[in-house]
Amino acid sequence: MSAVEARLTELGLTLPEVVPPLAAYQPAVxxxxxxxxxxxxxxxxxxxxxxxxxxxxxxxxxxxxxxxxCALNALAAVKSVAGDLDRIARVVKVTGFVASASDFTGQPxxxxxxxxxxxxxxxxxxxxxxxxxxVTVLPxxxxxxxxxxxxxxxx
Length: 155
Known about the structure:
By secondary structure, the protein is α+β, with helices and mostly antiparallel strands. Helix 2 crosses helix 3 (107-122). The model has no long low-confidence stretch (mean pLDDT 97). Helices cover 30% and strands 23% of the residues. It has a 5-stranded mixed beta sheet, with helices on one face.
């Protein structure tokens, strides 16, 4: 078990299996020392635990928890390419999309769920640049979607 996975265990989390693609793409790809993940939905055991818009059917607190799940799924996608999460030199960028009710403006707070998980799991290597974007709808009516870009150390 990698040190990152051990840290996740300390946090009461388990790295899930990679979520299979919903269409014609790969969950993650590597180019040079960088891994880019596809957008990760908060899928748990093959399904979305909650659907709908944040600020309407989904509370901001629920959405923050779902963003955390997205980040965990993104780490699983990174591991599928890198082989070992301890190879992460740093998380470079996080982009998050929040399916938002028309008057909801709390996207940054929702995406803190992903950002905080990455920092908790990776320490300073998990601190990153980020974009938090409100959108009308996401695939499968998911409330949130997160993608990450990481830099790897040599194998």
